[in-house]
């Protein structure tokens, strides 16, 4: 996967544009997103998609897969955004429209209509902000971004931390792919029990091995 990311960053249709201009473009759109109307945010997302898929020539399947993975975190956070718990005596006196309510033992679990609107707004803003990040990720090689930050007098220790995180992500992806292939070769993901054990081992090895590898690289560098 990381080879594809590097390939897109070095061979996209916007490769000839200086990284400073692309970075300023993405930052300006990101700041505009926080104050724009939802309709403007939707149009902004469409415009960014045209830049990524049309001008940069990034395959739409890859673009959709990345945004889908980001949207998954928003979906997982919906229960905490939508569901509220309060005493039934307080809920029955409220005039706020509710989309659903379940009362048990003097307590009510309910979904206010205003929370749905807020959750959709958070999702749309997250989508647009993520598109700004994806635009930079797919159109600008990471070393060039570090070069821009270095010319802007960003402290060197911050650049070193960013480079270490960049390496760690690649090691993590390599380890995840290798472990997944090894488990499939051994048939370790067949069946519910075997699949659960294999998944637990995969997560342990996936996050433990890259940490050890990164630590070893740091000690030798």
Provide a descriptive summary of the structure in words.
This protein is mainly alpha-helical. It has helices at residues 2-11, 19-35, 38-55, 60-76, 78-82, 88-93, 113-139, 142-151, 156-186, 192-220, and strands at residues 84-87, 98-104, 107-112. β2 (98-104) and β3 (107-112) form a beta hairpin. The mean pLDDT is 82.
Quick gist of this model?
This protein is mostly helical. The protein has helices at residues 2-11, 19-35, 38-55, 60-76, 78-82, 88-93, 113-139, 142-151, 156-186, 192-220; strands spanning 84-87, 98-104, 107-112. The mean pLDDT is 82.
Structural class call reads mainly alpha
Order of helices and strands: HHHHHEHEEHHHH
Number of strands: 3
Portion of residues in helices?
over 70%
- β-sheet strand percentage: 5-15%
Mean pLDDT over the full residue set = 82
Distance between the termini: 25 Å
Sum up the structure in keywords:
single chain; 10 helices; three-stranded antiparallel sheet; globular; mainly alpha; 3 strands; 221 residues; 77% helix
Helix-strand layout with pairing:
Layout: H1 2-11, H2 19-35, H3 38-55, H4 60-76, H5 78-82, E1 84-87, H6 88-93, E2 98-104, E3 107-112, H7 113-139, H8 142-151, H9 156-186, H10 192-220
Antiparallel strand pairs: 1-3, 2-3
Helix pairs in contact: 2-7, 3-7, 4-7, 8-9, 9-10
């Amino acid at each position: 996967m990381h080879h594809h990311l590097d390939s897109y960053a070095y061979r996209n249709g916007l490769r000839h544009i200086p990284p400073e201009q692309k970075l300023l473009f993405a930052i300006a759109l990101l700041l505009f997103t926080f104050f724009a109307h939802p309709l403007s945010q939707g149009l902004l997302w469409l415009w960014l998609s045209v830049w990524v898929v049309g001008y940069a020539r990034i395959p739409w399947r890859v673009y959709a897969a990345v945004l889908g993975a980001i949207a998954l975190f928003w979906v997982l956070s919906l229960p905490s955004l939508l569901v509220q718990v309060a005493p039934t005596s307080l809920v029955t006196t409220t005039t706020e429209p509710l989309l659903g309510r379940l009362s048990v033992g003097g307590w009510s679990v309910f979904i206010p209509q205003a929370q749905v609107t807020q959750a959709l707004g958070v999702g749309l803003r997250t989508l647009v902000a993520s598109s700004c990040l994806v635009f930079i990720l797919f159109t600008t090689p990471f070393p060039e971004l570090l070069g821009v930050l270095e010319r802007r007098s960003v402290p060197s220790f911050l650049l070193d931390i960013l480079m270490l995180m960049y390496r760690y992500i690649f090691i993590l992806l390599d380890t995840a792919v290798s472990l997944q292939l090894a488990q499939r070769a051994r048939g370790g993901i067949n069946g519910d029990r075997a699949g659960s054990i294999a998944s637990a081992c995969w997560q342990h090895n996936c996050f433990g091995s890259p940490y050890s590898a990164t630590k070893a690289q740091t000690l030798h560098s």
